[in-house]
Write a structure and sequence with these properties.
7 helices, globular, Peptide Methionine Sulfoxide Reductase, Chain A, alpha+beta, single chain, two-stranded antiparallel sheet, 218 residues, 6-stranded mixed beta sheet, disordered N terminus
């Protein structure tokens, strides 16, 4: 019985931690270095829960030059962190992945996407729930859509028994999130959500796909 209280306290604490619960006052303000895409750079867009986590995961992948947090998938113009929190904008927290196709393929990025979250969860990734945290794989052309569709078909057959809830949506407009969200995990290593959710999620991905990491990390 003596273990029940500590366990309950930890569980409640984790429930109170969420991406949406962040206060700007907690953030350590640092300017993001200017990023200039090369002539070989292409962009892919993915949403799979809190963009702090997703951005850090894609930035760890070889061939990814930059990942930018933002909003996409909805109908509201010029959404903000506050407005998407209502769940009424239609947007999902999304990451724009700038990558060099000579070093990493779109197909591999799709593998990273599906391999770094639970695509069977409807409207959320633990501990964040709501339509703004739903899973979306965006495509810009027919070839990208085919790659996504084939990945889903294979995973539904081999792993998820037809339960994948990921939306497959044509990319139309990406809105960059406020500057204080960019590189959030790297700039705020001691923030509660980062320590409890973001870092463990990143480390889980790294242990699962060591061959995809920059610098040959294991």
């Amino acid at each position: 019985m003596k273990f029940i209280k500590p366990f309950f306290t930890i569980a409640v604490s984790l429930l109170l931690i969420s991406c949406l619960g962040f206060s700007k006052k907690e953030e350590t303000m640092k300017e993001k270095a200017l990023y200039i895409p090369t002539e070989n750079t292409e962009i892919a867009y993915f949403a799979s829960g809190c963009f702090w986590c997703v951005e850090a995961i894609f930035e760890s992948v070889t061939g990814v030059e930059e990942a930018v947090s933002g909003y996409a998938g909805g109908q509201t113009k010029n959404p903000t962190y506050k407005s998407i929190g209502t769940g009424k904008t239609g947007h999902s927290e999304t990451v724009a992945v700038y990558y060099n196709p000579k070093k990493v393929s779109f197909e591999t990025l799709v593998t990273v996407f599906f391999g770094s979250h639970d695509p069977t969860t409807v409207n959320g990734q633990h501990p964040d729930y709501g339509s703004q945290y739903r899973s979306i794989a965006f495509y810009s052309n027919a070839a990208e859509k085919q790659i996504i569709d084939e990945a889903i078909a294979k995973l539904n057959t081999e792993m998820y028994s037809g339960k994948i809830a990921t939306e497959v949506t044509k990319h139309t407009k990406f809105y960059k999130a406020e500057e204080y969200h960019q590189d959030f995990e790297r700039k705020n290593p001691n923030q509660g959500y980062v320590k409890a959710v973001s870092v463990p999620r990143l480390n889980k991905f790294k242990s699962k796909f060591p061959e995809l990491l920059k610098g040959g990390e294991h």
